[in-house]
Amino acid sequence: MTVNQDDMLEFHWLMDMLETVEVGLIVLDSEFRVHVWNGFMENHSGVTASRIKERDLFAFFPDLPETWLRRKVKSVRMLKTRAFTTWEQRPYLFHFRNTRPITGTAPYMYQNLTISPLTSTDGEVRMVCLMVYDVTDVAAGNMALEQANEQLLRLSETDRLTGLLNRGTWENLLKADYERCRRYGSDSVLVMFDIDHFKAVNDTHGHVAGDDVIRRTSEVLLSNLRHADLAGRYGGEEFAIVLPETTVSGAVAMCERIRKVIAATPVDTGTAQINYTISLGVAPMSKDIETPTQWIERADAALYQAKEGGRNQTCVTDVPSRAQ
What we know:
Elements: H1 3-20, E1 24-29, E2 34-37, H2 39-45, H3 49-52, H4 57-60, H5 66-79, E3 83-85, E4 111-119, E5 125-134, H6 136-157, H7 167-184, E6 188-195, H8 198-205, H9 207-223, E7 230-235, E8 238-244, H10 248-264, E9 267-268, E10 273-274, E11 278-284, H11 292-308, E12 314-316
Helix pairs in contact: 8-9
Enzyme class: transferase
Domain GGDEF: 186-319
EC number: 2.7.7.65
């Protein structure tokens, strides 16, 4: 076999590899005319190499991020070095349909992109090569893992029955709000409340019905909160709320809304209508509260006063707020 035949065979193998490799290969000149368009690009775009060769890339794909791509290619040509883009930075360059059987639910093909300078014999960069990698499996796997981690985080921070913050998470946020108030002199109000005669509900209707009552209470609570408010299940039938940047009158108004809705709306368990009420204790932040625990104790004392006063009411501790 002659040298020329060896060269031709090598060239044939190279061209066959470029056509069958599972990477999109595009060679562009300085005017963004296409000179190489391999089989991967043909299969996923539906545009044959014969149609697009010597044609403007953006004329065939008007939805490409033209300004961004021109800027990236210009940088590669000037610096004579590669540039990389991952799917996390830009999900795709070409909006191709996802054809992966395992990740068929992905909305499109996620892509990594490499832009490489092609240096001529005189050292000038007259062409650049775009390499498009299908990373849909990796992207879908990473996103599924992130979703699972987010779900685990939510489960670790929330109470399963009510969806409210669990006690540990709520106490950590209470400490943070306490420190904020101490540092900046902000107003904040702590509310502790529980369900009146809850043991009788369990004894009369059963624990499943008791869970229904707790869930209904948390639903009413959540529907009356602002985004910044922090509500948690403190334990059993006890609930706790931190109301940042709130006056005592504003906190009492909110408590009364919740109390009246609960008193007026029985829980339907399917076998019985359960009427119940709640009692609430309100404690504004004040200068003499030295720890978050003391703040809770103040709210508990107000709650005890509401219980002693006949239940189904809101009581406020007699300590004035900062604004007062």
